[in-house]
Amino acid sequence: MSVNAINNATQAYDATKTTTAKSTQSQSTDETKATTTEDVAVVYEKSDTATTTNAKIYKRDDATVERLLAESEKRAKSMRDLVQQMLTKQGKTFDDTTDIYALLREGKVQVDPETKAKAQKDVAADGYWGVEQTADRMVSFAKALSGGDVSKANDMIDAVKKGFEAAKKAWGGDLPDISKQTMDAAIKKLEGWRDGTDSSTEMSNATADALSTQAITKKLTE
Q1: What are 177-200's pLDDT values in tens digits?
Q2: For helices 177-190 and 131-146, what crossing angle results, to 10°?
Q3: From residue 15, how far is each of 1, 27, 123 by CA, in Å?
Q4: What are phi and psi of 128, to 5 degrees?
């Protein structure tokens, strides 16, 4: 084979190799672009999913609800037991049919100094049945029922008002001023919340129990 033939063959091979390389490079570039486009789409989907996942989910705080109810029931029972002991000492009978509210409301119970002193301590500004502490417990109960969702405040406010009316009915007349002050304080703390909750009945009952016991305690100080 002549030198020219060899050179021609070499040049032809190089030209073919270059063309192949360019074709391969072009194909690789196209694949890279396609892959990049796909990656961008995937990233977009993940970002959108993350946004949905971050949406706030409110859940009723059953542990706090149960703790507050148990604590309130315990303190209410303690106050009723105190009244029962006082009535027993005075020779009065006491059973499930005894209307404590009527006895206290109508002044038919002579309150001894020891019971009066304890009641005064409980309804004092810093006492368990004082305005602030009682109102704070109502608000804590409302927040626990709603899972901390401030949009549920209106139903809680309505429930406090219903509870106040229920306490008046149980008491048999107007409640002491401290009870009205407590309701107003609780509502003020709940203002700004919106919408409703399915737990308004429980809130109403808890309010009624708290205000009724508060009324008993206050009456013992008079």
Answers
A1: 999 999 999 998 887 555 444 556
A2: 40
A3: 21, 18, 102
A4: -60, -40
Q: Measured between alpha carbons, how far is 178 from 168 in angstroms, rounded to an integer?
A: 13
Is the full-model pTM beyond 0.70? no
Angle ∠(200,175,105) on CA atoms, nearest 5: 130
In SS3 terms, 122-180 reads as HCCCCCCCCHHHHHHHHHHHHHHHHCCCHHHHHHHHHHHHHHHHHHHHHHCCCCCHHHH
Torsion sign (Cα): 107, 110, 117, 101:
negative
Q: From CA 170, how far away is CA 208, in angstroms rounded?
A: 9
Q: What angle do CA 180, 178, 70 make, to 5 degrees?
A: 90
Residue 40 amino acid letter: V
Is 31 exposed, middle or buried (CB count within 10 Å of its CB: 0-12, 13-18, 19+)? exposed
Task: Report yes or no: 157 and 187 within 8 Å, Cβ to Cβ.
Answer: yes
User: What is the reported pLDDT for 193?
Assistant: 56
Going by C-beta distance under 8 Å and a sequence separation of 6 or more, which residues neighbour residue 141? 64, 65, 68, 69, 203, 206
